[in-house]
Amino acid sequence: FGSSATLFLEASQSAEANKSTTELKTVSTTPLDKSTKQSKYKWRIVWRNVIAFVYLHVAALYGSYLLFFKANILTFIFFFTVGTASAVGITGGAHRLWAHRSYKAKLPMRILLMVFQTLAFQNHIYEWVRDHRVHHKFTDTDADPHNAKRGFFFSHMGWLLVRKHPDVINKGKTVDMSDLDADPVVVWQRRLYLLLMPLICFLIPTWIPIHFWNERPMYAWYITVFRYTMSLNLTWLVNSAAHIWGTKPYDKSISPTDNFKIALGAFGEGWHNYHHVFPWDYKAAELGDYRGNFTTGFIDFFASIGQAYDLKTVPISMIEKRAARTGDGTRVKQDNDHEH
Ligand code: ST9
Ligand code: ZN
Ligand code: ZN
Known about the structure:
The chain has helices at 2-17, 19-22, 47-69, 73-99, 107-119, 125-137, 152-156, 166-172, 178-181, 184-213, 217-239, 260-265, 272-277, 294-304, 316-326, and strands at residues 104-105, 308-309. The termini are far apart. It is an all-alpha fold. It has a two-stranded antiparallel ribbon. 39% of the residues are buried. The protein is built from 15 helices and 2 strands. Stearoyl-coenzyme A (ST9) binds at residues 20-21, 46, 49, 87, 90-91, 95, 121-123, 128, 130-132, 134, 145, 160, 163-164, 168-169, 172-173, 231-232, 234-235, 238-239, 266-267, 269.
């Protein structure tokens, strides 16, 4: 009786916690049929987000025209500098440091990465990391926030336009987040996010070109929106394109792919088949080649000045064995591979 009472209590508590998402009305289908196994449920569109994303993309289009044909050259340089910083805040910060703990960083570097991550406005670090850890743990299932099985658009941006699938929230609760609760940089960013984000992502980057080189306020604003929207799309391509097109040198049974073009645009995060198989590697790729992996260069530089340490990698013999066992045969053999 005791345990069934506890079960009932747990069930009612979780029902309470998820009352908004139960409106999705999960309907289970024939469990034996794999193709129809995905639960069907009514999409609940979040119109606020739809309107915001439509505005962002239209304004970004205009911003790109202003950037290339009208703006001051300094605005142009500023655009790339701020864009690079925000990208590294996601790749080197939210992703490789906080989500995967693939290296450790001292306080000054963590503060810098937190500011860069705020510049990217992809939610605060805690939320970003929780969704990302859930993505790794439940890849290609309903519990994956941007489940690539639901198509390009859903995994690209559609997942931010509808309420989450109940599995994301329920199974997401099983992910350990205690390390982030223990990092004051993450805790404070989360607390102050609604103040920090508009200031760091939008207001300051719009104000600087106006104040320091007399850029027209309208130009400065639309170019800021272009910078933000472009970095969002480059990030989203890792969830969409790099889960659809490319090779699978390390595990052919999963959707993530290795894709050089995405790696170039996403600062080294396009070696996504490797990354899903060995998520603790700070390079997020087998090779430390900086051309397709700007973020690795960034972390190595900070390691050389003592700010980053305990950089984790994977022994080549382990990579080689795994590729031979589960890869699609496209892995490029290395000089120090073992002979077969
Ligand atoms: C954005 C994020 O763009 C992009 C992330 C991309 C990741 C890519 C990774 C690839 C690798 C790295 C590549 C880098 C490349 C860089 C290149 C750079 C050039 N687990 O969310 P709510 C619970 S953001 C556990 O409201 P709804 C939780 O209890 C763009 N629990 O769900 C929560 O309460 P609490 C800007 C979870 O109502 C409660 O549910 N931001 C989880 O379904 C409700 O949560 C936006 O546009 C979980 N995973 O709404 C905002 N999730 O408060 C968009 C939730 O306690 N977001 N819970 O946390 C929203 O408006 C809403 O989240 C929603 C869903 C409408 C999407
Ligand atoms: Zn990851
Ligand atoms: Zn992925």
